[in-house]
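Incident log, structure service

09:12 report received: a user says their structure output differs between two submissions of the same chain.
09:20 pulled the input from the user's history:
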Amino acid sequence: MAENQNVEWKELWKDEYLKWICGFANAQGGKIYIGKKDDGTVIGLQDSKKLLEDIPNKVRDVLGIIVDVNLLTEDGKDYIEIRVNSNSYPVNYKGEYHYRSGSTKQQLKGQALNQFLLQKTGITWDSVPIQGVTIEDLRNDSFDIFREQAVRSKRIDKKDIDASNEQLLDSLNLLENNHLKRAAILLFHHNPEKWIPGEYIKIGYFESDSELRYQDEIHGSLISQADKG
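09:34 re-ran on a clean worker, output below:
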């Protein structure tokens, strides 16, 4: 068995390999073999019995997860197999988030970390609550356009047309603990670019592939942008 996305070989145990276990847990899971050379040759371990106890305890104490640690033997030489399952929740190593990608381990930072945490917790980008914005900050005309189009397309009953803006947002699942979600700001705020830079439509008319004759920008809520378009 060669090293691959789900298999890693190490000649001896080092505590820093907890990062590799973290990376496997945050990805698709995998196996780490301790006591093997890079070419897969078993070289054995002098302290295999002690590692059988130490590794599970360190993984539990540092990473907060449980892994299977098995003692294997080949040609009279002991080596250890660590089986790591993919974890449903983000696993961190002393505040660092590692991820197994291909045959490498990467530490997630910045936007990559944000995206990973959102995916692991089941939260999408548009469902993140935004503080500092109230329902009163949203535009009534955007709600009016929404109601008109919803009735016209028969996606809302006429009896529901008189629902308050708050009730409408709640029925659309755009509120969480009285905070507006990002999607609500995109749809109904008069200046969503304050929170989401670049949220506007740019239109261009080209005379040819390289000659731009006319361009314009449409700003405002997504609903008003669509109505203007």
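09:41 both user submissions now match this output. Likely a transient worker issue. Closing.
09:42 reviewer note: The first strand starts at residue 7 and ends at 10. The chain has two domains: 7-121, 129-228.
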